[in-house]
Amino acid sequence: MLFTALLAVVVTAGVIVAVILLRPKAPTPGGAPGAYPVPEPGPATPGVNCGHSACREIGAMTVGGVPVVLLADETGKQGVVKIGADTVIPLMINDMGVTLKGDSLRCVDGATPVCLVRGETGGGSAGELFVSRGGIWRDTGKPYFSDAGTVALSDVTADGVADVIVVRHECPGAQSGSARCAAAPVLAEVYDVGRGSVGCTRRYTAPSELKGWPDVRLTKAELRPCP
Predict the structure, then answer these.
(1) Which domain of life is it from (predicted)?
(2) What is the pTM assigned to this prediction?
C-alpha cells in the first residue's frame, strides 16, 4: 500500500513537470522576438474623425472646471478641439498647414477662461483662440500668424483674461517670409480677446531676446503703439 502511494506521488509530479515544460514561454518585453506587439492607441473619441482618419488625443487640460482635449490624426495635420462632454470644434488652422503636437494646446483660467491651439506651419506658427463666456465656449473666428515662430498666451494687460502674443518681423514694404523680412528686427504684438490689438513691444534683434522665449511673457508697461 505504501508502494502504491509513492507511485501515485511520482506520477503526479511527472505530470506537473510536463505541463510546465510544455507551457508556452511568456513574451519578453521591449519588442524582442516572441513579444506581444504594443497595441496602437485607439481613437480617442469614437465617431469623431480628424480629416479622413480617426482622432487621437495629443493634449488635454482642464480650465474653468471643464476638460479641453486636443485631438488630431496620426500626422498632426488635421485636428479638432473637444470641450466638455460633447462639444467638438474643427480647427480653422488645419487649412494653414499646421503641424499639431503634444504642446500645441495652451489654456489659462481666469475671469474668462481662454485656450489657444497653435502649431508650426510654413514660414512660422499659427494659432487659434477659444474663449468661454457664460459657460459657452466659442472659436473667436480669427487665426493668428507669427512669421517669427511664436504665438503665446499670457495675461499681459493684467485684467484677469489671457491675451494673445504674436511675435513678428517688423519689415514694412517687404513680403512676409522673404529673405529681407527674415533678417528684419522683431517685435511682439498683444491682442486682447475682446478689443483686438492693444500695443507692441519695442523692436528686438532676434526673437530669443524676448523674455521667456518661446513662451513669451510681457507686462503692460512694455507696450507702446504699434509701428
Answers:
(1) Bacteria
(2) 0.77
